[in-house]
Specification:
Number of helices: 8
Number of domains: 2
Keywords: Cytoplasm, DNA-binding, NAD, Repressor, Transcription, Transcription regulation
Family: Belongs to the transcriptional regulatory Rex family.
Radius of gyration: 20 Å
Helix content: 40-55%
Largest sheet: 7 strands, mixed
CATH topology of the largest domain: Rossmann fold
Shape: globular
Distance between the termini: 44 Å
Function: Modulates transcription in response to changes in cellular NADH/NAD(+) redox state.
Structural class: alpha/beta
Strand content: 15-25%
CATH architecture of the largest domain: 3-Layer(aba) Sandwich
CATH class of the largest domain: Alpha Beta
Binding site for NAD(+): 91-96
Protein name: Redox-sensing transcriptional repressor Rex
Length: 216
Amino acid sequence: MKQTQKVPEATSKRLPIYYRILQKFEQAGKKRVSSNELSEVLKVDAATIRRDFSHFGALGRKGYGYDVEELVQFFRGVLDQDEATNVALIGVGSLGSAFIKYNFQKSHNTRVVIAFDPKAPHEGKEMNGVPVYHPDEIEEQIQKRGIEVVILTVPSKVAQEVTNRLATIGIKGILNFTTTRLTVPDTIRVHTIDLSVELQTLIYFIRNDENQSQMD
């Protein structure tokens, strides 16, 4: 079951969701599942699910559907779930503190192993088991740990400045929670999550659904 073509970004974003749902099916003892069953749970139409899966070759069998255990193993490999990824957090305000308290290691293979905040001492302090250093230590501490992915929760006014520093030390990915549209070299991938935009989008869809219901 090999990837046969470039996977669209929209499909890639759904892969962790497929993996999570399939894990739940496996834990419940379910042996096989159809695209229609997945559609009911995920609220994604069955045709889209089949098209997403088709990018990875023949994952299912006609008349049978998909083997749950095989799919879990396959997506674990695709998502590198057997290899832990260490992440740095820059900005330990309200949102950053929530990341540290939750820490991703509890649910999958990604975990925050170091954080940076202007209020922290240069020699570092510990918060929920995570060492927190002053931002002056970013280059040294990140390079020492070989970290390639960063969560950015700093004030927007300093987001680009911090990003410029990260670009000089081999960072490959930034999960950006600021409202700044970051400028980065081609070697860095940025995913921006603007919570205010997401909330406005949610409200729009709610209002649109209400208008559609009134028209029906």
